[in-house]
Design goal:
The protein is mainly α. The protein contains 10 helices and 3 strands; from the N terminus they run E-E-E-H-H-H-H-H-H-H-H-H-H.
Length: 220
């Protein structure tokens, strides 16, 4: 999936190589502008969600079991895109997509439970869904797991494992965090040389705290 604009929705159906365009001129099939194209194995649907009818069309697609549609419908309710804010509906659709293995849905669902937005705080559920997403390689979920293990659960071995995975994917905050763990030996053997490398990686991305730590190590 790729983002064209903040009002773009993408759904992956169809065969490679096909290309179709439909316009408002066909009010019975598509009363709003929809562009459908196939690029490799990806079908892109573009449309602006301006009316209840538009939302309803998208809901029908989600009800067929399409995980991408369920995920984006969850985001629509979570972010008030053409509808009133409704966390109950957001969670409903995100759960459906998450249970189908949709990593972004798993991550967003975990964030909702972790922040208690519209639902009760539920750290076990947050960890569950962050873990599902992280195991699929979701870098931000890996970083969040590192935070949860290092702060709330005080398990620095697990924290180091997930921070490292996120750091290797270029998450600057994770690079800084794994640097701190390695420098201070929290749950792992101290490794100042590796810590310096990770501080350097984060500093190159503009991470101020990493740069301070790096400067301090290099000026000892």
């Amino acid at each position: 999936m790729r983002i064209i604009s903040t009002e773009t929705v993408f759904i992956h159906h169809g065969s490679p190589g096909d290309f179709h365009m439909h316009h408002q001129a066909d009010p019975y099939r598509f009363p709003l502008s929809i562009m459908i194209m196939f690029l490799s194995n990806e079908k892109v649907w573009y449309f602006k969600m301006n009316t209840n009818e538009d939302i309803e069309r998208f809901r029908k697609l989600a009800e067929t079991g399409d995980a991408d549609a369920q995920y984006h419908l969850g985001l629509i309710y979570q972010n008030e895109k053409g509808v009133s804010l409704d966390y109950a509906q957001a969670v409903k659709w995100l759960v459906m997509a998450a249970e189908q293995g949709h990593a972004d849905a798993q991550y967003n669902l975990a964030c909702i439970y972790n922040n208690g937005k519209g639902v009760s705080l539920d750290y076990p559920k947050a960890i569950k869904w962050f873990t599902r997403a992280a195991e699929q390689g979701h870098a931000h979920a890996q970083y969040m797991l590192g935070l949860m293990y290092s702060s709330g659960l005080q398990d620095y071995v697990e924290a180091a494992r997930w921070f490292l995975k996120a750091a290797e994917q270029g998450i600057a905050d994770a690079q800084f965090k794994i640097g701190v763990i390695l420098e201070e030996g929290r749950g792992v053997r101290k490794d100042p040389a590796s810590a310096e490398v990770w501080y350097g990686e984060a500093a190159e991305q503009g991470h101020a705290d990493a740069k301070k730590r790096l400067d301090k190590m290099q000026n000892k």
